[in-house]
Amino acid sequence: MASREEVTVYEDEVRSRYSHLEKMTDLVAVWEVALSDGVHKIEFEHGTTSGKRVVYVDGKELIRKEWMFKLVGKETFTVGASKTKATINIDAVSGFAYEYTLEINGKSLKKYMENRSKTTNTWILSLGGMDYRVVLEKDTMDVWCNGQKMETAGEFVEDGTETHFSVGNHSCCIKAVSSGKRKEGIIHTLIVDDREIPEAVE
Predict the structure, then answer these.
(1) What percent of the chain shows pLDDT beyond 70?
(2) Which CATH entry fits the domain spanning 116-197: 3.40.50.720, 2.40.128.180, 2.60.120.650, 1.10.1670.10?
(3) How far apart are CA 146 and CA 132, in angstroms?
(4) What is the pTM of this model?
(5) Each residue's pLDDT tens digit, 33-74
(6) Secondary structure (3-state) at 84
(7) How many helices (H) and strands (E) does the chain have?
(8) Selection from 45, 36, 42, 101 nearest residue 68 by Cα
(9) What's the CA gap between 13 and 41, in Å, rounded?
């Protein structure tokens, strides 16, 4: 049986963990944005009477404006390790209805994600009971794993290139091979411990 003090400490811990959710009575939009360093959650509060605006990224408060006489407008901030620019646009639709759109690097979230799928490859894998998200940025050949930029070693091989890195004590290699077709370009394959990992669709 837990003592009353232990229970109180536990309750305080739970309360502080969820306190930002209790206060979020004006939550109007939630977006999930997949970047190289991970998937980030953006939450937006908008008080349509007070004009209050609050932006949370991954549960942390980034912007708070209590009283705004102008109910429409935009809030700009950065997301993730690479400080990617994000803007929330607040537009009046009719009467007291508002529309909230998220732009990433000046593009609508949909356009940004479509473009991103052309410039990056993402793999999700499980090693020794741990989940890993590996992202290759094709333009720079940077490799990210669970939010960390990896140390890599690249080498030219007979049919293309190989980028080597390790996750834990597992050897990983991203092979880049020409598809032989102009439209498809280069095909990137992740091999971990001699096993090919299927690409994830985010």
Answers:
(1) 88
(2) 2.40.128.180
(3) 6
(4) 0.78
(5) 999 999 999 999 998 888 899 999 999 999 999 987 788 899
(6) strand
(7) 2, 17
(8) 45
(9) 22
